[in-house]
Amino acid sequence: METLFLKAQNTLDWERAGEILRRGGLVAIPTETVYGLAANALDGAAVKRIYAAKGRPCDNPLIVHVSGFSQIAPLVKEVPEEARKLAEAFWPGPLTMILEKSEQVPMETSGGLGTVALRLPAHPAARGVIEAAGVPLAAPSANLSGRPSPTTFAHVRTDLNGKVDALLDGGDCQVGVESTVITLVGGTPRVLRPGGVTLGQLRAVLGHVELDPAVLHQLGEGAQAASPGMKYKHYAPRAQVAVVDGSPEEYAQYVKGRKGAWALCFEEDMPLVKLPAICLGSRYDGAEQARRLFGALHQLDQEGAQTAFAHCPGQNGVGLAVYNRLLRAAGFRAVYPKGPLVVGLVGPSGAGKSTAGARMKQAGCSVLDCDGLTRSARVYDAACIEELQGAFGPEVAPGGLLDRKELARRAFATEDGRRRLGEITFPRILAQVRRVVDAARDAEVAVLVLDAPTLFEAGLDSACARILAVTAPEEVRLARVMERDHLSSEQARQRFTAQREAGFYTGRADYVVDNGPGASWEKALDAVLFQLKGEAAKRL
Ligand code: TXA
Ligand code: MG
After folding, report:
1. Domains along the chain?
2. Nearest Cα residue to atom 3 of ligand 1
3. What is the pLDDT of residues 481-515, one digit of tens each?
């Protein structure tokens, strides 16, 4: 079949695409999530061609795309209040809602189900083509079934050129993972597929929202999938993929010496990993990982990779979608390194980190006070003192004895001095932390907590598999710091402006415990402890 190439910047091409779709043809279109392969959703025969072109099992239903909220009414039995709220908050955008379908939606589109999935995409060309077609468009991701979803025009061309009527080139997709699918049918709203809209965002609008177990766990033999798409192997490159759930150091250690394998990892892993590697961005930037993920899976194919080890992403925010896709690409092969689960405990001054640390200790965790460690003679050994003298003058250690006040006075005077001090001391601190981690492994400690105010600055996070942030409202923290350190409000405020904002910590955390007034932080922390122990148990 001759495939027509169209351009998303050209509104005339939207009309051409619309015309093809009205006549029952297939057109691949860009959306903000991934490219979709579109057909008239109300034309069963046209929709059948999608299944044929993709090689998709025909019991796997399609998402119906509309260009305005009012267009969903004829497609569903009723529009519940929850749907209105979600549309208000997230449409146009990467959210798909499942509702009971009306007679108008053919069985081909709903995969034989009595429900229909609906989405109003944000991409202007996607909406333009729907408008031009004058009908809602059924559009699964524009990849061959089972292959990674397409996020660039080149991906679409490789999979579908010659198989469909037209391809509309819209460049790279902004979100990079598919829409979040939420069902509003039958009880509590439930996320069937995590995506561009996060669980937290959904909960902020609807209150209670569940996560379908199939998102994170392989369905048992013969189990009924809430979303038929979840029972198929998905997003798979040709390489065998395994997901390694550990700290950057554990990950690097695990993949070390695996000849011929590829690493699929984060910026923070790159200096540690010796394999050929594809970087997904920072381990703390789920949105960037989402943008790069499918491109990375496609690249594995281009490189002819046979085996790949993916570093497990955090599961917060959009990270949950990245984790879900990686698990599926790996066929749920997950690896848990042996040894203690190392948890970085962080948070702004006055948030109550030490209180949290104490409770974790009570609960059986081993807790390392990294602040104390940074002052130890192990770090400030003779070689270190010599280097410090070289950098800051012999006066910082008269007679070889460290004068901390003088060192601080000189090192903290300039940005450059601060950096030099870090260069000299941080690797030594990290080496000490490694010793403690090794000792904990020998002692069969399950959870090792690093209580470290400068965890990120000192690079100690490379030893952490999880990050726990404790936080509290600024006013509360100010009051605590004033009382604890006998400071005036002025002084306390000054100290705060010199420090990182709370968001710096919470944005990097796998778990956040709110230790503000009224917040029952013990309960929240205990819930986190329960999860940590579950994670640690996988490492036995
Ligand atoms: O971002 C997206 O959603 C992209 C773009 C093109 O809009 N589309 C997409 O479609 O990812 P697809 O077909 O690859 O994934 C649709 C998912 C499948 O897992 C399917 O099983 C599920 O949604 N689904 C569709 N209709 C459903 C229904 N009525 N009940 C349960 N799950 C449904
Ligand atoms: Mg798909």
Report:
1. 4-215 (3.90.870.10), 240-335 (3.40.50.11030), 341-537 (3.40.50.300)
2. 179
3. 999 999 999 999 998 988 899 999 999 999 999 98
- From the CA of 117, give the closest atom in ligand 1: 26
The reply to whether ligand 1 has any atom less than 6 angstroms from the CB of 66 is: no
CA distance 485 to 516: 19
pLDDT for residue 210: 97
How far apart, in Å, do the first and last CA atoms of the chain sit?
Answer: 55
- Could you say which ligand is closest to the alpha carbon of residue 193? 1
pLDDT, one tens digit per residue, over 30-40 is 999 999 999 99
In this structure, the dihedral spanned by the alpha carbons of residues 359, 362, 364 and 365, taken in order and rounded to 10 degrees, is: 40
Write down the pLDDT at residue 297: 96
Instruction: Work out the angle at residue 371's Cα, subtended by the Cα atoms of residues 367 and 374, and round it to the nearest 5 degrees.
Output: 115
- In the predicted structure, residue 234 carries a pLDDT above the cut 90: no
Residue with tokens 């044929």: 52
CB 136 within 8 A of CB 64: yes
Q: What is the mean pLDDT of residues 196-207?
A: 97
Q: Is 140 in the pocket of ligand 1 (CB under 6 A)?
A: yes
Pull the structure tokens for residue 282.
């920072």
Q: Which ligand is nearest to the CA of 33?
A: 1
d(CA 16, CA 6): 8
Q: Is the distance from the beta carbon of residue 176 to the nearest atom of ligand 1 less than 6 Å?
A: no
pLDDT of residue 373: 84
Any ligand 1 atom below 6 A from CB of 96: yes
Ligand 1 touching residue 295 (CB < 6 A): no
- Which of these, 69, 197, 67, lies nearest to 125 by C-alpha position? 67
- Are 67 and 131 in contact, with CB atoms under 8 Å apart? yes
Please give the number of the atom of ligand 1 that sits closest to the Cα of 36. 6
- Token digits for 218? 């392989």
Beta carbon of 181 within 6 Å of any ligand 1 atom: yes
Report the residue among 26, 31, 47, 62 best suited for mutation to probe ligand 1: largest number of ligand atoms under 8 A from its CB.
Answer: 62
CB 406 within 8 A of CB 396: yes
Give the pTM. Answer: 0.94
Side chain identity at 139, as an amino acid letter?
Answer: A
Residue to mutate, 35, 50, 167, 178, ligand 1, most ligand atoms under 8 Å from C-beta: 178
122 closest CA partner among 61, 50, 173: 173
pLDDT in tens, 167-197: 999 999 999 999 999 999 989 999 999 999 9
Is there a cis peptide before residue 237, judged by omega within 30 degrees of 0? no
Asked if pLDDT for residue 227 goes beyond 90, the answer is no
